[in-house]
Amino acid sequence: MPPEKSAYALARYSRSPDSIEDSLRWVHAHSSEKFWEQFYFAYGHASIADLGHVIICFEHISELAAIRLEDEPLWDGQAKSSRYQNYSPSGCYVPDSIRGTETEGAYLGILGSLFTGYAQLHDPMKRFLSDHTPRPASMKEGDYDRAIAARAFDVTRYLLPLASRTNVGQVVSIRTLEKQIARLLSSQLPELRTIGEELKDACRRPPLNVWGELSGQPAGSAEPLAPTLARHAQPSVYQAEVYTDLARHAKEVLKAAGLDQPSSWTAAEAVELIEPHHPVDELAATLLYRASQAPYRDTLRLVQSWTEKQKQDTIEVALRKRGPYDELIKEFRSGYSFIFDILMDIGGWRDLHRHRRCQQIQQTFTVQHGYDVPPALTEAGLASDYCAAMDAVKQDVERLRKSHQEAALYAVPFGFKVRCLFKMDYAEAEYIARLRSGVKGHWSYRTIAWQMKQKLAERYPFLGGQIQATPPDVEDRLTR
Fold first, then answer.
1. Same-domain pairing of 289 and 175
2. What are the Cα distances from residue 337, in Å, to 183, 343, 423, 437?
3. 347 lies in a domain?
4. Are strands 53-62 and 165-173 parallel, antiparallel or unpaired?
5. Residue 273's CATH number
6. 175, 205, 235 — which closes off a domain?
7. Does a structural domain hold residue 470?
8. Is 326 helix (H, G, I), strand (E, B) or coil?
9. Does 261 lie in the same domain as 188?
10. What single-letter DSSP state applies at residue 99?
């Protein structure tokens, strides 16, 4: 059924003594569009839209756009895996604003050097892994080849830029879809605004019905996907402007405190478990953290030195343009007992980003924090080539950023580090530490997950002791 009509049927079913069969017949004879206009958009009965779901696929978008699509908290989906596929043929996204300019040449030069390194490192890495991890007699050759290839891509994907093309498939309610469209249309990034417009257009049209046609249904028989939603989904002034306002405010206060430059940041560990602190301090510090590159601990220390009015003024920046129907931005989802400030490579972070039962506040992608070197590269004697490539890219990206920040953002490779705040309860901390530290995983997030357990155990020995995590030095390269 079309999602707007299935949601209408289930809504009526919950408000009627009729069976679901009778409700479906009733809805078939009545206008679902009129129902939606009245109850969802006029009366604001938003929970109705939770009852209709859609499957939507985004093809040939950038990895950066894919990450932003997955920022939805109530979201189910998967992106094309850089662990199991060769990304060389995928190509890269080029911002429209640089096409035909000198900047485009510099941009494509950076991406070209990255993909050259990506291609050149894969075969030597695969040979090294094969030589040092022979196939057990009990393992089929095809399974072995796939496992070795995945471990090789674990390493070489560190050279992939955020501009790499990818695909994403998602299953969401039309309530989440409406929020997603509004968020995309309000984005500062042109690619995301374009995707938002294409999503609206997709809602106006009948969906692709390949399965139905293969099953004998006549072509062209499908109804529009979500036509009423398409008419009403609009950009949000609040979402379009709040982060710009916060960035401007954060720049002023961080500069005044000397926290606007890397040299002023306290040396940070990869994982820090933050001490419990006042909710107002947490909210003000989180809003500043989102707009900076400084560690959370440094930002929190600054906020705790402020007067109550200074804290309230920062929070007010994030509230003053909020309209009556605007949800608070995700930085307001505070109050979780366990707050981890994590600094790790983008490639490994993308896997932790999939976790939904926590709040994530990510800082902007940059090359300021340096890059990680996969241990397997060092073992294989290939680290010098990798480091030379990454050092050159770092200089090129920093130079590009002075003339075109959007292009510089897309050119950042997965191997560079990103800082992200993870707020969660104990159950999610236990789940992440146990799941992500397992031998099936990637070395980077395995190390982070293990350190999360260790940090918990240091502060709360009993709780940390209940987490069955696997130390990163326990390895099995053939387990996937």
1. no
2. 28, 20, 8, 22
3. yes
4. antiparallel
5. 3.30.70.3180
6. 235
7. no
8. coil
9. no
10. T
Sign of the CA dihedral running 41, 76, 56, 160: positive
In sequence order, what are the residues at sequence separation of 6 or more whose Cβ sits closer than 8 angstroms to the Cβ of residue 43?
Answer: none
- Between strands 165-173 and 76-79, the pairing is antiparallel
First to last CA, the chain: 37
> Are residue 287 and residue 321 in the same domain, yes or no?
yes
The DSSP code sequence of 446-461 is: HHHHHHHHHHHHHHSH
Q: How many structural domains is the chain composed of?
A: 3
Residues 246 and 174 in one domain: no
Q: Which domain holds residue 158?
A: 94-164+377-401
Which position has the token pair 């950066």? 64
CA distance 298 to 288: 11
pLDDT per residue of the chain (480 residues) written in tens, 0 to 9? 888 888 888 888 888 899 999 989 988 898 888 887 877 776 666 788 888 899 999 999 999 999 999 999 899 999 998 888 888 878 899 999 999 999 999 999 999 999 999 999 999 999 999 999 999 999 999 999 988 998 999 999 999 999 999 999 999 999 999 999 999 999 999 999 999 999 999 999 999 888 888 888 887 778 888 888 888 889 999 999 999 999 999 999 999 999 988 878 877 789 999 999 999 999 999 999 999 999 999 999 999 999 999 999 999 999 999 998 899 999 999 999 999 999 999 999 999 999 999 999 999 999 999 999 999 999 999 999 999 999 999 999 999 999 999 999 999 999 999 999 999 999 999 999 999 999 988 899 999 999 999 999 999 999 999 999 999 999 887 776
Backbone angles phi, psi at 131, to 5 degrees: -65, -35
Measure the CA angle with vertex 9, ends 8 and 10; round to 5°: 95
- Same domain? For 246 and 335 the reply is yes
Domain boundary among 188, 208, 235: 235
Would residue 475 count as lying in a domain? Answer: no
478 found inside a domain: no
Q: Whole-model pTM?
A: 0.93
How far apart CA 153 and CA 176 sit, in angstroms, is 33
